[in-house]
Amino acid sequence: MPHESALPSDTPLVVVAIDGPAASGKSSTAHWVAERLGYRHVDSGALYRTLTLLASQEAGPAEEWTEARLLALAERVRLAPIPGGFEPLIDDAPAGDGIRGIEVTRAVSRVAQMPAIREWVNARVRLAARGNAVVVDGRDIGTVVFPDAPLKVFLVADPWERARRRLVQRLERRPSDDEIAEETERLVQRDAKDATQTVQAKDAILLDTTYLTQAEQVDRIVALARALERVGHDRGQAGRGTDA
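^ that's the sequence the OP posted. Answer follows.
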């Protein structure tokens, strides 16, 4: 039986892996980076969230969820290719904005901590990446899913700033300090729960985004990817020159 980190033989060489704690801006940044590079965006978190949404609808209270029950529900979830990325489906219908709701956000850590569910998500992410140049964000991306990715980035930010950004996105207004404090406490608790799935790969580039705009984050990652593309191109040219 292959190790969990084993990659399919046809996995693309062009993988940008983006990891980091909750609300570090992984998904939105990865989407923008993929768009700039002309790659496909694979949001592994969308799979966890979609399964969490389905479980909340059909599997009773979160305290009663089991790996077996969630794996059975997972058969109804898949990623479908769309321009520039993939869309999570439930029973072949778009999962919708409900996967970003508060209740899903509060319960998704419980799902992500189940080893069998992580294996299911990782397998679906690898499958989506076959034959594509991809930017993948989520959990364990640079350490387990694509340990040989040529570019790995680990995003971090101060918990207060992460909480502020999340609330601005959710509320579409400037949050109060009390609201940010409450959200910060939730994020710190989430960090503790997610600690085993939020590990920086040894060869990942740490990017602290506390004082960076999203545009600046994207610019830096795109620049790193372009530099690797140039290195690969130059090596290819050198190889062809040797064969001539």
